[in-house]
Write a structure and sequence with these properties.
about 350 residues; Rossmann fold; 2 domains; two-stranded antiparallel sheet; globular; cytoplasm; nucleotide-binding
Length: about 350
Amino acid sequence: MVAVEKAAVLGAGSWGTALAVHLARNGHAVSLWARRAGLAETIGAARENVQYLPGVKLPETVRVSTRLEEVLAGSTVVVFAVPSHAFRGTLAAALALLPAEAVVINVAKGLEEDSLQRMSEVYLQESGAADLARYVTFSGPSHAEEVGRNLPTAVVASSPFASAAEFVQELFMSPSLRVYTNPDTVGVELGGALKNIIALGTGIADGLGFGDNAKAALMTRGLAEITRLGVRLGANPLTFGGLAGVGDLIVTCTSRHSRNRRAGIEIGRGRTPEEAQAAVRMVVEGVRTTRAAHLLSRIHGVEMPITDQMYRVLFEGLSPAEAVKHLMGRGRTREIEEVAGFDVWWSRKRS
């Protein structure tokens, strides 16, 4: 186990709380930062985050505070567990307080709506760092409700610097949490962000009363368009066949814990996107990510039909039923035509 004097977790939502609990169980002293004083007081008194992660008790070694300087002082590990739209602001507030050698771990899964940047790009821009030597992306199929209860889970620690990824791997590894490393930060970040769009779609399919066939089609073709955009932006296509790609896609599209799927179900049943998000009562990352991904696909000339229809449902008032008609009525195409070198392979097969 890595010897850590102090780990700071910024963000007391469900995932931040689960990671704080997990790190404490691994023997580390943990400080959990909550933005709201009322939430911090409630967690501290009950030793449980009743609002976001009920039923999971916080070990006594987890200290809860709203004072950022207090939480960050002396930390060798800082976990950013705030939503993607809050990452830049939280990072900016924390930068002057970050110990020089602290490893920065980001667990948010999204794209910044205005800049269209991935979280590692936001980090580089805000910090002025020359590289990602002390920054690690932590992603994969990992609902807080299960990690908090020590249920078996496998995730990915990603950094182009092997030593940083391996440090985080060892930090989090336990009998219930297996951590793999992957140097492809672009692919890991995009896989974690874009799967939320597809989960909104599978939720809508459930809300409309469709069956497993529709869900399987959405997930499979969703993975295809995620991979198309990812490769165009420099990702390794193999990443999307791993935990941060298809693994996270499966769990987010099918789990009862998935906020994006739950929001989609409400939209499919007739609620507006705003009403659906209010019903979930937690951040639905896929909504902002849909807008960002839609713009990225247009900028880079990448075909993303599911994302396009989700954008129209969320932001242009298209009904879910009409979106389905548009997807099912598209022109004929080959399943793997987007794979590099397909035309050469196909011409050889025909000759």
